[in-house]
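User: What would this chain look like folded?
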Amino acid sequence: MLHRTNPGSYIVLKSDEDDMFLYDFVALNASMKGWPYCIRVVIVYGTFLKLAYGGTLLVAATQDVEGKIFPLAFCVVDSENDDSWELFFDKFRKAYAVREDMSIVCDRHESIIKATIMVYLEVPHGPCTFHLLINIKNKFKKNSKKFKDTFFAVANACTMKNFEYKMRELDKIGKRIRPCLQQIGYHKWARIHSPNNRYSNMTSNIVESLNYAIVVVRELPICTMLGCLRALVQQWSWTNRNIANSTSTKFTDNHDMILNENYIYSLS
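Assistant: Here's the prediction, encoded as structure tokens.
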């Protein structure tokens, strides 16, 4: 039905030899058409389904130029494991291919890391800085309450001078933190060292927010859930299109507001 009502969508439904459901992957045509106009950062996430049969929903999303959440793909699998994430990225690549300067952001799930290396070897991937902070806090519990703000300042630094300055502040809190971060690789979690532009997407907040929006949907049977996810994408696309059509300035509302605020601030 999705193929009939949304021609051009990339949809894969797989069942076993007894016609029992195995997995499905859905990338709607509207999302595929919008992807070239979004920022080049894909954020992936897995969340469990509250069904009698269990299962996991894998999600990929990005942001449009206005900063709004833009869902890209949904996939229902048995659990977060090596095979399921490799399958997800394989189907995602067939639907969206590879964009120049593309990046992938995720939590530090081992299966995601393995799958990105297998399927998207040429695309840099990095951990969500919030998940990375939790791991570091668990490793260095003695000063865990002290370095949250400093760590985020390091991760979001836009110049090398500011990065090194904040790293020296981190050294004062704990000498072992810098070697740990070096081992992970600065290019994976620090904005200034990232080979591609991650914009403001240093965390997985986008998919966390999307997960909150569909928390009730995750209790529904799979077919009904997919129908609700399709309706959500349709509703957001319709709303955002109307906002865009009514925009009278050269910039989006969000960026126009920032420019106006900076202009007023500059007067003094």
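The mean pLDDT is 91. If you want, I can go into more detail on any region.
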